[in-house]
Amino acid sequence: VVMMVMLVAGMALSQGYSLQVGEAASAAAQGTLRATAGINVGDEVMFYGARAAYAPIEGLLVFLDGGMADSDAMDSAMSVQGGAIYALPVQMPVDLAVRGAIAKPFFDDIEIPSYYGYGGGTMSIDVLVMSAMALASKDLGDQMGGLTVYGGAGFARVTVEVGDVDDSSTELYLAGGAIYKVTDQLSVYGEVDLVDDPFFGGGARMDF
After folding, report:
1. Which residue, 7, 64, 165, 191, could crosslink 20 as a Cys pair with Cβ 3.0–4.6 Å?
2. What is the pTM of this model?
3. Collapsing DSSP states into helix, strand and coil, what is residue 96?
C-alpha cells in the first residue's frame, strides 16, 4: 500500500492533472471572458482539456479547468482545477501577480493484486493538489509585436490517500512560457513547468 501511495503521489504532483499557467501577470480588464484549450505532457501523464476564465473585477481573473488525464501506470481520470490570478497594483518594469489553484483528479478504485492467497480486492484513491506562486510577465510589443513572456515560482503540495493510508509532499514549482497574440481575440501559448519532473504544454486561447 505504501508503494502505491508513493507511486500516485509522484505522478500527481502539481500541474500533471491540469492545464498549466498559460496567463500573463498583467491586470485583466473587468468583464474579460476567455476560453482556452490545451495539453500538458509529463513523463508519465498527459492531460488534455479546456479552461474558462472570467474577470469579475479589474485585476482578478478566476478560472476553471476540466479534462482527461492519461497515465502510463493508472487508468485515465477526469480532472478539474479551480483558481485565480490577482495582478498586483504596483508600478514595475514587469507585471506582477500572485496565483493560486486547487486541482483534483477523480481516480477509479484500484485493484489490489493477491499474493499467495493474501490481499486482493479494491482500494480507493483520493488526490488533492494545491499550488501557489508569484508570477511575472513582460509584454515585448516594442521589440516583438504580439509576444508576451512570463515566469513564475512557488510551491505545490499534493495530498494522497490510498485506502486508510495517507501521505503528502511539497515541491518547488517553477514555470516559464510565452503567449503570442495572433489576432485581437486569438492567442497561442507554450510553457515548460518543473515540479520534481518537467512538464511541457501549450494551447490556444480565445477572448470574447
Report:
1. 191
2. 0.86
3. strand
